């Protein structure tokens, strides 16, 4: 593996992924020291989500990814990795930006867990109303 790489940071919910993209790689994805298949287990959809920007028709080369991801759950982590990979691809080649933007991979997903409010059981669930 060459020493030069392109960096991208991605976020989703409370997960933060730091992605290193090595051009002319073998196509492997390493997440926190494990392969992506081992890290995400039997949930192949999460592996596909994380690698989605690499499978666009405009981006047709093999890259090696090394990812450090912390926080959140596995679904949020996969989304953070996708965001970071897209940002690293744009840093490597700015011509990819329009295709990645059109696919929605460069937009940071703003949805977060809503906070619990006082007097309620959860964010919106109120105690049962009794008339008498």
From TrEMBL:
Belongs to the universal ribosomal protein uS9 family. PANTHER family: RIBOSOMAL PROTEIN S9, SMALL RIBOSOMAL SUBUNIT PROTEIN US9M. One of its GO terms (molecular function) is structural constituent of ribosome. Pfam families: Ribosomal_S9. One of its GO terms (cellular component) is cytosolic small ribosomal subunit. SUPFAM superfamilies: Ribosomal protein S5 domain 2-like. Residues 113-132 have a biased composition (Basic residues). Keywords: Ribonucleoprotein, Ribosomal protein. Residues 106-132 are annotated as: Disordered. This is Small ribosomal subunit protein uS9. It comes from the Bacteria. InterPro entries: Ribosomal_Su5_D2-typ_SF, Ribosomal_uS9, Ribosomal_uS9_bac/plastid, Ribosomal_uS9_CS, Ribsml_uS5_D2-typ_fold_subgr. The keyword Ribosomal protein applies. NCBIfam families: PRK00132.1. GO terms for biological process: translation. PROSITE patterns: RIBOSOMAL_S9. The keyword DNA repair does not apply. The gene is rpsI.
């Amino acid at each position: 593996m060459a020493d030069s790489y392109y960096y991208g940071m991605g976020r989703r919910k409370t997960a933060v992924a730091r992605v290193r993209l090595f051009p002319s790689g073998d196509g492997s994805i390493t997440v926190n020291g494990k392969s992506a298949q081992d890290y995400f287990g039997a949930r192949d959809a999460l592996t596909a989500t994380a690698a989605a920007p690499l499978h666009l028709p405009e981006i047709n080369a093999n890259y090696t990814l090394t990812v450090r991801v912390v926080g959140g759950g596995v679904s949020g982590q996969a989304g953070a990795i996708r965001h970071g990979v897209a940002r690293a691809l744009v840093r490597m080649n700015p011509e990819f930006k329009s295709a990645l933007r059109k696919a929605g991979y460069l937009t940071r997903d703003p949805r977060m867990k809503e906070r619990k409010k006082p007097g309620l059981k959860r964010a919106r669930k109120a105690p049962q109303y009794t008339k008498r």
